[in-house]
Amino acid sequence: MSDVSNVVSAKELAGLFHACAWFGALDGPQQALVLATSRAEHVGSGAWIARRNAPSDYWLGVHAGLLKLAIYNESGRSCTFSGVPPGGWFGEGSVIKRELRKYDVVAIQPSLVVFVPTATFHALLAASLPFSHFVIGQLNDRMGEFIASIQNHRLLDAVARVAQSLAQLFNPQLYPSTDLTLAISQEELGYLTGLSRQRVNQALQLLADLDILALAYNQIKVRDLGRLRLYGLDQI
Question: Closest Cα to residue 60, out of 113, 7, 136, 121?
Fold first, then answer.
């Protein structure tokens, strides 16, 4: 992991957790347990947060930046499952089963990542009904996201794949903190879609011409989220 100097202070950590709805639903001793055992770190672009086939020691959250969940093989080829923007929590499936992690976690942008130990996660799951409800919702929504990702990759053209990859970052249950102005480059979006930068550029230009998006340097502003979510679904 990153250098210890990148670990946030206890005061900052408390502020990060108080911004999470699930944390606010815990009682005092449960909140104290989370704060005493968890940590948050600033990581740079390209940093590996977790490795596939390594123990799932933490439930992970993103306070700032953007992560991707992917698999890399020995030849260097990769398959991206999902991007995780600010407000997103993930990895609960592997943590619940105490199994090896199924994918790699890599920072696409400089990010602030929160780590909740597996033991703490299980203690909350056993003692807090609101937390259990939150986790069940996460699992259900994540499964829906993964199914949609596979469907989009196989059935949609490049423009629709870009539109749906962006729309997935605005899932209100999984990613409640996503801003309509995304600080993301075309190269970074290519990592999420599996498309070349040139094809991403062409897709974004078309979506901008339709007034669904507005483009600036390393920034995408969603002008019509409803149309973005629907774009390309007629191909399915």
Answer: 113
First to last CA, the chain: 41
Same domain, 71 and 160: no
**Over residues 40-48, mean pLDDT:** 95
How far is CA 29 from its chain centroid? 28
What is the pTM (predicted TM-score) of this model?
0.89
CA atoms within a 13 Å half-sphere pointing along the CA-CB vector of 116: 28
Residues 14 and 69 in one domain: yes
Tens-digit pLDDT profile for residues 126-145 = 999 999 999 999 999 999 99
- Residue whose C-alpha is closest to residue 121's, from 90, 100, 146, 81: 90
Nearest to 138 by CA among 61, 78, 80: 61
Q: Are residues 127 and 164 in the same domain?
A: no
Provide the token pair at 128.
Answer: 């807090």
**213/12 Cα distance (integer angstroms):** 34
Question: Do 108 and 28 fall into the same domain?
Answer: yes
pLDDT category at 192 given cuts 50, 70, 90 is confident
